[in-house]
Every structure is written in structure tokens, then in C-alpha cells.
């Protein structure tokens, strides 16, 4: 039986976790406690065996707490954590410390929160990325379209490193044109060690437009990356609870199924879990 996995969820407790990114406009939907039992009903209803918890804070304590949740709840299959990419010595220590837990899968910097579009070019950041590659950990990237131009260099320098682009780089963000996004995402798709999460398309479209439809928010982007990268390098993901800004958990599934185009049963199994299981070595 095919495995169904959701490789992108978040857990937090306001006032306890580092939610520096949570601006006032999204607090009505997101400034609440979200823990593994809160997502379990959605997993059970959709026959999903487990999740990967992805970084949403920037502290040592956050990493430890996320791994504690993974140890407590068996359906939290792994954690993508955080290190300070501008402090490679400390980052290496944290990678070694947290890497002792087999559920620590990799790390994610939030490039979209960095005011300098060239942040990733700093020598300190390059050294930290090299340390991640040396430890055979995953590099996930939360980026806007303007950051895509720098990613082929990372993939080229670390051709064996597993790299994932979250949310297709949020193409709905008004950050250049759709043609710019297509050009740059196609250049990245040429590297076989890069994978892509088909996720957050609905809520990102809704954030910059008056509502959303699958035809607007999902179809043009999901079908383009499918043509460029192939279904074998794509993962559906819910981005729960952020998806609650524009819909619910099931919207993330149904909009992806409708928007990405016709799938064979094998392709659907790949998109909804088998690809993630292989990438994360679950």
C-alpha cells in the first residue's frame, strides 16, 4: 500500500516559541496553539501516516522542543530545524548536537525574511551550507521568486545534497512577473538534487488577491513545475496551519489534485507520500 505523508506542517505555542514572522494581519488565523494532536484528525481522515515538522522559529530551544514532540508523537516522522547560517561554527555544533536524534532531518533558513536579496552569497552562509552537505542533511529553502537566481549555484556546488524549494517559491507574491518565475524555476529544475513542494499556493494567492480559485492559484504553477521537474520530484504538502488563512486542510489536497492535472494512481501515490518518504528517508 502506498505511503501518504504530509511533509510540511508547523507546531507552535504563542508566547513560548519564536514567532517573529507573525505579523498582525495574520494573527487572527494563526496566533493560536497548534500541536500534533490538533493535526491528527486531518491525517486520520485522509489516511496520512505522518508529518514532517518544518522550522518556524530561530532558537536552540525551538529545535529541542520540536524534536521532543517528534519523540512523543510517533506520527511526527521528522523535523526540519534551524541554525544561524551566519555563524558557521555554532551552526556546525548545533547540527552535530541535534543530529544525534535520527528524526533531525535538516534545516531551513527563511530567506524571505532577509532584507538583503544576496544574503545567501555571504561566505559565512556558504560555509554553513557546506557543513549541512558534509553531514548529509537536507537544506530546505523558504524563498520568494527574487531569490531563485542564486539557487543554481548552491545546487551546482553541492550536487549530492538534498535540497527542497518550499511552496514553489511563492509565485503569487508580487515579486517580478510570472514569466520571471517560470524562467528562474525552470533553471533550478535542471538540477536533479532539487525537489519542490506543491504547497501554500492557495493561501499565498489569497493574501495578494480577493479570494482564490484553483485555476488562478494552483493550475498554472503546479502544471508548469510538473512539466519542468517531473512528478517524481514534487511533493504535495498542507502547510498546516498556515493554510487556515485561506481555507482548511482538505483544501490543500483537493486544490492540488484539481490543479496539477490528471494523475495515474502511481503518480498520485508519488505526489502524496512516496516521493517524500524517499527524499526524507522515512
Question: How do the helices and strands line up, and which of them pair or pack?
Answer:
Blueprint: E1 5-9, H1 27-30, H2 36-45, E2 50-54, H3 60-72, E3 76-81, H4 88-98, E4 104-107, H5 123-134, E5 138-141, H6 151-157, E6 163-165, H7 178-189, E7 194-198, H8 201-208, H9 214-217, H10 219-229, E8 234-236, H11 249-259, H12 265-280
Parallel strand pairs: 1-2, 2-3, 3-4, 4-5, 5-6, 6-7, 7-8
Shape: globular
Rounded mean pLDDT is 96
CATH C-level category: Alpha Beta
CATH topology title: TIM Barrel
Topology as H/E string?
A: EHHEHEHEHEHEHEHHHEHH
Strands of the biggest beta sheet: in what spatial order? 1-2-3-4-5-6-7-8
Question: Can you describe this structure?
Answer:
There is one protein chain. This protein is 42% helix and 12% strand. The protein is an alpha/beta fold. It has one domain: TIM Barrel. Helix 4 (88-98) packs parallel to helix 5 (123-134) and helix 7 packs parallel to helix 10 (219-229).
Amino acid at each position: 500500500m502506498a505511503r501518504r505523508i504530509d511533509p510540511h506542517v508547523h507546531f507552535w505555542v504563542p508566547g513560548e516559541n519564536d514567532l517573529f514572522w507573525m505579523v498582525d494581519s495574520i494573527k487572527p488565523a494563526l496566533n493560536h496553539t497548534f500541536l500534533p494532536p490538533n493535526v491528527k484528525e486531518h491525517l486520520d481522515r485522509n489516511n496520512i501516516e505522518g508529518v514532517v515538522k518544518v522550522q518556524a522559529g530561530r532558537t536552540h530551544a525551538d529545535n529541542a522542543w520540536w524534536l521532543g514532540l517528534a519523540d512523543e508523537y510517533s506520527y511526527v516522522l521528522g523535523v526540519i530545524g534551524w541554525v544561524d547560517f551566519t555563524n558557521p561554527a555554532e551552526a556546525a555544533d548545533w547540527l552535530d548536537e541535534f543530529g544525534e536524534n535520527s528524526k533531525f532531518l535538516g534545516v531551513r533558513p527563511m530567506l524571505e525574511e532577509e532584507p538583503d536579496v544576496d544574503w545567501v552569497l555571504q561566505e559565512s552562509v556558504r560555509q554553513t551550507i557546506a557543513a549541512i552537505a558534509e553531514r548529509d542533511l537536507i537544506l530546505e529553502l523558504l524563498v520568494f521568486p527574487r531569490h531563485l537566481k542564486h539557487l543554481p549555484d548552491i545546487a551546482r556546488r553541492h550536487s549530492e545534497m538534498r535540497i527542497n524549494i518550499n511552496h514553489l517559491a511563492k509565485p503569487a507574491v508580487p515579486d517580478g512577473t510570472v514569466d520571471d518565475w517560470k524562467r528562474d524555476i525552470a533553471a533550478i529544475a535542471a538540477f536533479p538534487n532539487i525537489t519542490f513542494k506543491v504547497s501554500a499556493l492557495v493561501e499565498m494567492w489569497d493574501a495578494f488577491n480577493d479570494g482564490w480559485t484553483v485555476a488562478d492559484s494552483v493550475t498554472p504553477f503546479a502544471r508548469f513545475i510538473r512539466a519542468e521537474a517531473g512528478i517524481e520530484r514534487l511533493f504535495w504538502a498542507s502547510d498546516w496551519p498556515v493554510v487556515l488563512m485561506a481555507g482548511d486542510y482538505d483544501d490543500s489536497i483537493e486544490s492540488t489534485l484539481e490543479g496539477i492535472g490528471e494523475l495515474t494512481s502511481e503518480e498520485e501515490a508519488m505526489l502524496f507520500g512516496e516521493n517524500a518518504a524517499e527524499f526524507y528517508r522515512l
